[in-house]
Each structure stands twice: as C-alpha cells, then as structure tokens.
Design a protein that fits this description.
329 residues, alpha/beta, TIM Barrel
Length: 329
Amino acid sequence: MPVSTTAKLALTRRPRRLRRTEAIRSLVRETRLTPDCFIYPLFITPGRGVRKPISSMPGVFQLSVDEAVKEAAAAKAEGVPAVILFGLPDTKDLTGSAAADPDAPVQSAVRALKRDMRDLLVITDVCLCEYTSHGHCGVIKHRDVENDSTLKLLADIGVSHARAGADMVAPSDMMDGRVAAIRSALDHEGFSNTPIMAYSAKYASAFYGPFREAADSAPQFGDRRSYQMDPPNAREALKEIATDIQEGADIVMVKPALAYLDVIARARRLFTVPLAAYQVSGEYSMIEAASRNGWIDRERTILETTTAIKRAGADIIITYYALELARGL
C-alpha cells in the first residue's frame, strides 16, 4: 500500500533521532541540574563528635558543630555553595528563648563554619518550633499562636543569627508581617546587606512528618493549619509571595516541592525574584523507603524528582540529597 504524502512528511519528523544516545540526549537537554543550585540542610545539636541517625530519614543525621563543619566541607568540595541550619537546643520554654541565644547550636555552628569556610554561604532557619516547649512557631495565647507578639521574637532571632555571621536568614514561621519585622530589625542593627529568603508559600503538609523527628519540633497540641497554608490553595500562595516581596524578601520559597510543582510554575511566571523550592523530609523518606523495598530505582528517582523541581521553575533547590547529587553530577 503506497505511503501517503502526509505520512512521508510525518516520518521526516523523527523526535527519536535526538534520543538515540546519551551524548545526543545530553546535548539537547532542556533542564540541567548543577551543584550550584543546591542548598544542603543540616540539623545542629549540642555536644561534640555527635552524629545521631534520624530513623525516619536514613542517611541524615543530627550533627554537633564539629561534625556539621565536616559535612559542610564535604558538600562545598563537591560544589554545593550553601547550607541551611536548623537547631536543637538543650532546653525549651514557652517562648523559645534559646533561639536567640548567641551560644545556641545554630549561632555556634555559624561561627565555626564561617571561620573554616569563609566562602560557604551559611543560611539560618528563623523559627521557634524547635525551641518552644509546645512545638508551635510562636507565642501561644488561648491555645493559638498569637501573630503580632511573635514578630519581635522572630526579629531577635534573625539579628542574633546575623551577629553570629549568617550570610542569609530564612523565616519559616508563616506569621503575617514577619519579613517586614525581620528586615526592619536587621537594618536597624546594621545588617542591611543580609538577605532574607522567605518561606513564602509554606503549606500545612503531611510531608513534614520526618522533619519533626529530625528537629524535635512536633506540636504538643493541635496542628499548624491556622498559620501554614491550606494545600488546596494556589492563588493564595501567589498573594503570600507578593506580600513577602513587598515586605523585603530577596528570595521566596515554595514548600514542599513535588506536590506543589504547579505553584512553583505559576510563581516563576509571575515573579522575577529568585525562587527556591524545598524537597522536604517526607519526599526524601518516601524515596528511601520505596528504594529499600526494591520498588523504585533510587538514583534515577532522586535525579528525576529534583529535575522536575528545576523544570517547574525553581532556581534554588533545598534538598537532603545535595551532597549526593553534587557527587553524581
């Protein structure tokens, strides 16, 4: 049977030609991962020589300052430019007062990291949940987080981190007005050059479960739905991002990443500021659990999920795989 002119034309357009070998696929690849787009999260705990495994996150550890320096140095050697620090204090109280202590684990780690690696970008998470006895991200009044009285505490934490030498602070609490409060405090204390990376669209997600073990930050009552975003909402995320930019955020973030690729893509189309996305603990743990059961190819899944985050529009990816990915790339 003769081949029609239309069929002949169609056969001249063979997309498979550009998929035939790895060299060709690499040449025409549209989305590229490079180590310099990663931020490596580290959990800092008191002590020395501490490298405590986190059971729900195989391969991730709570680290004393000396061990965190080693881990950051390994990441830096592979081309990862930045770490973000989360602290586990010795003691907790109702207002999370240890968070602004100049000798707390995060502040101590900042000084040690900047002393040993001046060109490493050290970012600090600014929140209260790891430091409060109730596990919520602010001051509690009538069993709810009181927004405005929390702002001063967050501003004090941000200034404390900047004084220790942090290159950037990252408020993750989702209080209204916290970017403006932290920006004002930083400027007033002479840290006008310290950028803010805001957790702007942070959802009340089920994917945070393992993090609560890692950072010992589970709420002791209720949940965080009154201040973190409702997962069905996307337009609201864009309003949150716009507000944070107006208040002075230099970088904005969507968290979690994989379940919110549509939000990342919409934010990328609307805003020109650098956009970060956090591949959170639950995303990490699902990959690890499925791969350990032999259900997925671990390395391919890590690469595919992080590529999807970049393809959606994220400039920056916060991921527990940063060191491993950098080595592989």
